[in-house]
Each structure stands twice: as structure tokens, then as C-alpha cells.
Design brief:
alpha+beta, Archaeosine Trna-guanine Transglycosylase, Chain: A, domain 4, LON domain-like fold, 5 helices
């Protein structure tokens, strides 16, 4: 697969494929980036910040991120631009360069989508847990396409909705195998008080 150049939006958040991410845009570099994405029908990469901050100087981010496309936008009551982005394909950053306006551009390699895998029987309680979590917080926080029969989909939705530390969410994003994703989540759930 050939490499592509995309703008990066380093955040203190992990976006999973199929997940939704609302953002407030106020820095000039990101207003320009969003404008270009909307004008050209392109997207941007979301990566968890390894070092640095979301504002100011360009932050250092983890290599694995998720390509995002803008699906909605509005002018907020506070005068800022609000967008909603949806996660698509995961990617690995090959190299980055910081433009004069501090926007990080990255040469990335898109990672293949994991094949759809059914939920192994011993992980079916995780699908039930996801149903309970979604019922409590509301469907608007989860993917529009419901697929409780797909191990990867369940793993990604649980990873984004459960109160896990960001480094654990990043670890889960980097896994290629949907069953391994559920296994890792099951281990992490032992330390959460979720019934």
C-alpha cells in the first residue's frame, strides 16, 4: 500500500475506527486544516499526544493513529467552530514535518482493516456489557452502524466508552487482531468496578 501525506491533529484522546469525535476548533492552523478538508473532501489524522500540549507548539504524537473525516460542523454559541469527525482507517506515521503555522503534516502508511471476526462464545458477556453501557449513556455516543456480532467492533466501542487510561486505549488501538483486542480488554476490565 502506498504512503499518503495527511495533516495530523494530535490530541489527548484516542479515536477508534467507527468512533465519533466532537471537537472545538479555535487555533488558526486547525481552522485552516478543517477548511481545506471540507473544501477538498479529505480528512486528517488523529493521534494521541505522547509529549506536549494540544495548543501552542507542535506536540509529539504516537505513531499509530486513526484517519478522521468531518461529518458535521456548526458555529457554536461561543463563536468557535464545532466539528464532528468519524474515525476510519488506522495508520502508522512514517515521518512528520511541521509547517510554519505549526500544523504537523505526516507521511503515513494506512494499515489494513482487520477482517470481520465473530465474537467467541466466552466473550459474549462483553457484547452484553456494551449493550448496558450504551443504554446508560445513550446511542449518540456510539457508532451509527451497530454490529454486536463483530469482535473488532465490540472491542473498539468498549475501548472508547469505558473509563480506561489513555495509554491503555492507545495500546488497544495498536492491536491488529480483534480477538486479541477482546482478550486485552477482558484483562483491563478486571481492574474496573463495572458490573
Amino acid at each position: 500500500m502506498s504512503n499518503s501525506e495527511i495533516p495530523l491533529f494530535p490530541l489527548h484522546a484516542v479515536l477508534f475506527p467507527g468512533g465519533s469525535l466532537p471537537l472545538r476548533i479555535f487555533e488558526a492552523r486547525y481552522i485552516d486544516m478543517v477548511g481545506n478538508c471540507m473544501k477538498n473532501g479529505t480528512g486528517f489524522g488523529v493521534c494521541l499526544i505522547r509529549e506536549g500540549r494540544e495548543v501552542g507548539d507542535a506536540a509529539t504524537a504516537y505513531e499509530i493513529g486513526t484517519f478522521a473525516r468531518i461529518v458535521d460542523w456548526s458555529l457554536r454559541h461561543d463563536g468557535l467552530l464545532g466539528i464532528t469527525a468519524v474515525g476510519g482507517q488506522r495508520f502508522r506515521t512514517i515521518r512528520t514535518n511541521v509547517r510554519q503555522n505549526r500544523l504537523v503534516m505526516a507521511e503515513v502508511e494506512f494499515l489494513p482493516d482487520a477482517p470481520a471476526v465473530g465474537v467467541p462464545e466466552h466473550f459474549l458477556p462483553m457484547a452484553d456489557l456494551l449493550r448496558r453501557v450504551v443504554a446508560q449513556i445513550g446511542e449518540q455516543h456510539a457508532s451509527a452502524e451497530w454490529n454486536y456480532d463483530d469482535a473488532g467492533w465490540i472491542g473498539y466501542r468498549l475501548a472508547e466508552l469505558l473509563p480506561l487510561p489513555l495509554d491503555q486505549k492507545q495500546y488497544l488501538l495498536q492491536l491488529d487482531d480483534p480477538v486479541q483486542l477482546l482478550e486485552s480488554l477482558a484483562d483491563m476490565l478486571k481492574y474496573l468496578d463495572i458490573t
